[in-house]
Amino acid sequence: MIKVLIVEDHKLMRVGLKSLFDELDDIEVVSEAQSGKEAVEKYKITHPDIVLMDIGLPDISGIEAAKRILELNSNAKIIMLTSHISEQDVLDSLHAGACAYVMKDINIEVLRMIIMTIQDGAMWLDPQVVPILREKNCGVVPPRQMSRAVFKEQHANLTKREYEVLKLVVDGKSNNEIAQELTISEHTAKAHVCNIIQKLVVDDRTQAAVKALKEGLV
């Protein structure tokens, strides 16, 4: 069970996230905070595995709160939540030590996979953030050519179609939704997913998605 601290000043968003996590059997919300300073205090008390941190908070920013938490524990795992992409916020979040930068409109199943990926020690960035980091030459994101080369070297046995299916699995799509997206039958979509699971040597589609995120396949 992964213990999560939710930091969000909007009650509706906070309650919504907790309600969604309550339906999952591998994530437990151990505490909530509605300000940056409260987040730091709640972290001291609950010692969560993951902190879901809103950037825009009423006292200190989520970025400053993240810095203070990381001063308490350099191994703290913090996922920054935001409703918009700000180049400065992206850079400041990563420099502060955040493990992920995530948009608030993300699919809950994808957020779940990101949490699992971060828990395993990886890093995750919203796709919209990647061009910013490449342009700034931050050294956080490798060149696209490297990602493709690693993919071909390590997972050459995945077909082009299976790679397309894998990206949709990471997006949290069901077999039926994958079928509609790629204009194939649901039976074919299911077969592709089964092949991917076998080739990536994992037990289910969630683990496949986690591995894809962790190894930068998508």
Q: Into which percent range does the helicity of residues fall?
A: 40-55%
Distance between the termini: 26 Å
What is the molecular shape? globular
The number of helices is 11
Q: Uncertain spans, ≥5 residues at pLDDT below 50?
A: 142-149
Known CATH architecture of the largest domain: 3-Layer(aba) Sandwich
H/E element order: EHEHEHEHEHEHHHHHH
Count all strands and give the number.
6
Q: Can you identify the CATH class of the largest domain?
A: Alpha Beta
The CATH topology of the largest domain is: Rossmann fold
Widest sheet: strand order? 2-1-3-4-5-6
Q: Based on helices, strands and strand pairing, what is the structural class?
A: alpha/beta
Number of domains: 2
The Cα radius of gyration reads 18 Å
Kindly describe this structure.
- This protein is α/β, with parallel strands linked by helices and 218 residues long.
- It has helices at residues 11-22, 36-46, 62-72, 87-96, 108-119, 130-136, 144-154, 160-170, 175-182, 186-199, 205-214, and strands spanning 2-7, 27-33, 50-54, 77-82, 100-103, 124-125.
- The chain has a 6-stranded parallel beta sheet, sandwiched between helices.
- Helix 2 (36-46) runs parallel beside helix 3 (62-72), helix 3 (62-72) runs parallel beside helix 4 and helix 8 (160-170) packs across helix 10 (186-199).
- The longest helix has 14 residues, at 186-199.
Essential attributes:
six-stranded parallel beta sheet; single chain; 14% strand; 11 helices; alpha/beta; 2 domains; 218 residues
